[in-house]
Amino acid sequence: MNIDFYAAFIIGLMGAGHCLGMCGGVAAALTLGMPGQQQAKRWPYLLCYNTGRLISYAIAGAIIGGAFAGIASFGGYSTGLVSLRLFAAIMMILLALYIGQWWQGITKIERLGQSLWRFVSPAAKSLLPLKSPVAALPFGLLWGWLPCGLVYSTLSWAAVSGSALSGAAVMLAFGLGTLPAMIAVGSMAQQLQNFLRNLYFKRASALMLLLYGVHTGYIAIKQML
C-alpha cells in the first residue's frame, strides 16, 4: 500500500471540520421520516449513505487515475506524472491553508463542479425523506458528487496514482478518513463534533498537511531537475 493511500486517508481525517460543514446537515437529515426515532435505527441509514458516498469517490478516483495513467502511457510521458505530483502537492498546501482558516481561495475550485451538481442535486433531493436504509445507498451515491474543495484536492492525488485501481484506492482511503466526522454528526455524538470543529484541532491538522505538501513538492521538484 503506497504513501498516497495513507496521505488520502489523513486528508479525509484532518478535513473533518470541513466535512461537518459541507455534509453534516445531510447526514443529520437522513433520519427524517424514518419509522421511529430510536438511536439503533440510525445506523443502517448511516451505513448505507456512507457506503454510497464512498463508492462515488472510488468511481471518481478510478476515472481520474485511469485517464491520466492512459495519457502518460500513450505519450511515454513519465515527466508529466511528476509535474502532476507537484500540482497535487500545491493543492495540498492550499487545502492546508483552507482547513487552518488562513486562506479561503480554494473554495473557488468548488465552483467548477456547480454545473454537474445542478443536474445531480434534484435527483438526490427527490429521495428525501428516506423510507428505508436501502434508499440511503443511492442517496449517498448522488451526494458523493457534491462540489467540494477537499474532494477535488484529493482527486489530484488520484490523478498521479498511476492506474484506475490505484486512483479508486486513493479516493476510497479519503472517504474512510471522513467517516468519523460523518458518523459523529449522524449519530449526534456532540462531543466528537465539537472536537472536530475546534480551531486548534483544525490548525494542527492543517500544519500536518502543509508539511506533507511541502515535502511532496520538494521531492517532485528534485525528480524534475
UniProtKB/TrEMBL annotation:
Pfam families: DsbD_2. The keyword Transmembrane helix applies. Keywords: Membrane, Transmembrane, Transmembrane helix. Residues 7-214 form the Urease accessory protein UreH-like transmembrane domain. The chain crosses the membrane at residues 6-33, 54-74, 86-106, 127-146, 158-183, 204-221. The keyword Transmembrane applies. Coiled coil: none annotated. InterPro entries: UreH-like_TM_dom (IPR039447). This is Sulfite exporter TauE/SafE family protein. It comes from Photobacterium chitinilyticum. The lineage of its organism: Bacteria, Pseudomonadati, Pseudomonadota, Gammaproteobacteria, Vibrionales.
